Amino acid sequence: MGRPLTNPADLKRLQHFSDGDVVMIVPRELLITWGPKEMDRVPYLIEPAEFGELFRNFEHSAWRLETRRGYASDLEDDSYIAFKATGSATWDLGSPWSVNMRAQTAQGKTVGRVRIVDDPPTTGQLFLLDYAQCNAATGEDIRNLWRADAERLHLGDEDFWIFDSRLVAVLHFDDNDVLLNIELTTEPAEVVRYSVLRDAAMHHAVAFEQFAAQLIAKQ
Length: 219
Known about the structure:
Helix content is 41%, strand content 22%. The chain has helices at 8-13, 28-31, 48-57, 78-86, 96-106, 123-137, 147-152, 188-204, 208-218, and strands at 3-4, 24-25, 44-46, 61-66, 110-117, 141-146, 159-163, 167-173, 179-185, 206-207.
């Protein structure tokens, strides 16, 4: 049995509780009875090749929260260069990523992302909003959420993928938006925490087409 939650700040963040309800803190040890894999957090860094294999070997779902204001990897991409020059990103549905995504989603697997957007959006965020058309063409579910709403929901600033609701790959970046490393965890309490962030983001985000229309209306 856990102990009651009494911290006023934590209680304030909870929803759907009535007067007289008591919130209990569930011991981490109990999560092992239904959570995935290790009881203790055992994070480790993986190489890009191993990270890439996750997108070929996941069984049911792959989902990402994108929190950066831009990604250095986009800057030299032909699609980004075209967007900077013309205002429209180019697509390559024959790229290895697109081919694999189409193959995965054709099997009924779900792939999705929620992209956090500043107000006003950065150039990198505008590029990704336009490029979402290519993502959608491969079967991805792309949604957007204003950063102010993300902060209100306490989504944090971690950029991560979650696979099959059982393992999480956290992407670490430097101040120049360069990917430094990829940290993998299957620790149950951590996986649950990221799953909660995913569910909140998916619930409050809107489809990229609707978000783009909202952006135009604001201008």
